[in-house]
Design brief:
With 364 residues, the protein is mostly helical. It has helices at residues 2-14, 19-26, 30-38, 48-55, 59-63, 70-80, 88-102, 108-120, 128-148, 152-168, 172-180, 184-193, 197-219, 226-239, 249-265, 269-290, 310-319, 322-330, 342-354, 359-362, and strands spanning 295-297, 307-309.
């Protein structure tokens, strides 16, 4: 495995990339990258796919399997250039590159690169008949890759190219299996491109819902970081501008008192009271939502095909004792500088007497 360290070093320098930058990209330390390149250690297998994606090579190339000779390597590099800006000279030279690649019929990497170049060459799509021939050749080459290699990077590229080419040809239903075989963020984008009409809207909102919750979960990892808590509230209000928060009320209810405490620590008592007034409004809104029955739909334009059941909201409220949460939130020592303010006293009375969320406080 001494080869892989040297290969990583060569590819990194070719990409004009520092060890620190490469380490950031793949989530390891710069010291780990340095040890790989010095031959003191080797990357985990889980690092192979990210490294191939960053450097634009296959796993076989990275690991030194079936290492191409200099002539083949030069041909690969020239073909990869066709993914960028294509000049007239490049268009004129492409038939010669095809001929050279044909001399290596078992090299699936070369075959894939020819297919990718065919997809991007504008002059090869002069009429419908020629465009159909090009698509057929792309399909043939990509299917050969998928049938004959287990290289994850090469398979990913072939699935992506084949799905893209079929979508561009209007064959969205045929493209779907290849889009679903893609990975990462590109998978969801490719799937959406295969859909139209209501099917597209429903799937798009499904992906948005999942991404939104993932983002909010990441931001809520700390309850003592004011910018994160403020961003959670801002995101929810942006996604749901009509105030129909439904299942997102608990996040707002739990985040507002934390913001208030942090603002008091900063000496901004007026803004802290604003957050507590928001706290009361969110509690009332959630109580109203829980009073409904059946399936409740969001009315935000980007999530109006999604919703929550009344039973689901009940489970959300049951996962947190909101009465106890209200009592603890208003009794927190950090809020002591607010206790003699008339607006704080009025707000506390409102929460204790006006909502079921605060009912446990009134029984104290």
């Amino acid at each position: 495995m001494e080869h892989i360290g040297k290969k990583i070093k060569d590819l990194r320098k070719k990409a004009d990339m520092t060890q620190d930058r490469l380490a950031d990209y793949i989530g390891v330390s710069a010291q780990a990258v340095s040890k790989w390149e010095l031959g003191l250690s080797t990357p985990d297998l889980s690092m192979i796919v990210p490294l191939t994606g960053i450097f634009g090579v296959t796993a076989d190339e990275l690991l030194g399997l079936n290492e191409p000779d200099e002539e083949t390597e030069a041909l690969m590099e020239e073909l990869r250039a066709y993914r960028g800006k294509i000049t007239r000279e490049m268009e004129e030279r492409f038939p010669e590159l095809e001929r050279q690649a044909a001399a290596h019929p078992t090299d699936l990497r070369l075959s894939y690169e020819v297919a990718a170049a065919e997809y991007w060459l504008p002059s090869r799509k002069k009429d419908q008949e020629e465009e159909s021939w090009i698509l057929a050749d792309i399909e043939k080459r990509c299917h050969a890759v998928l049938d004959r290699t287990t290289d994850p990077s090469l398979r990913e590229n072939a699935n992506h190219l084949l799905a893209d080419a079929l979508i561009m040809a209007g064959r969205r239903e045929e493209a779907m299996p290849y889009a679903e075989a893609c990975s990462g963020a590109s998978r969801e984008l490719m799937i959406l491109r295969c859909l139209e009409g209501e099917a597209w809207i429903g799937k798009q909102q499904h992906f948005v819902y999942g991404a939104l919750n993932k983002l909010l979960n990441m931001l809520s990892a700390r309850t003592d970081h004011l910018p994160s808590l403020e961003m959670i509230e801002k995101i929810i209000k942006t996604v749901f501008p009509d105030g129909n928060y439904l299942g997102y009320y608990p996040r707002l209810i739990m985040g507002s008192p934390s913001q208030a405490r942090l603002l008091v620590r900063k000496g901004d008592c007026d803004r802290a009271m604003e957050k507590l007034r928001d706290f009361a409004a969110y509690a009332r809104g959630f109580e109203e939502a829980m009073g409904k029955s059946g399936y409740l739909s969001y009315t935000s334009p980007v999530l109006d095909h999604w919703g929550e059941s009344a039973e689901g909201l009940g489970r959300l409220s049951g996962s947190v004792d909101f009465g106890n949460y209200v009592r603890q939130s208003l009794s927190h020592p950090d809020l002591n500088p607010l206790r003699e303010r008339d607006d704080f006293k009025a707000l506390r009375a409102e929460l204790e007497e006006g909502t079921s969320c605060g009912s446990s406080t009134s029984r104290e």
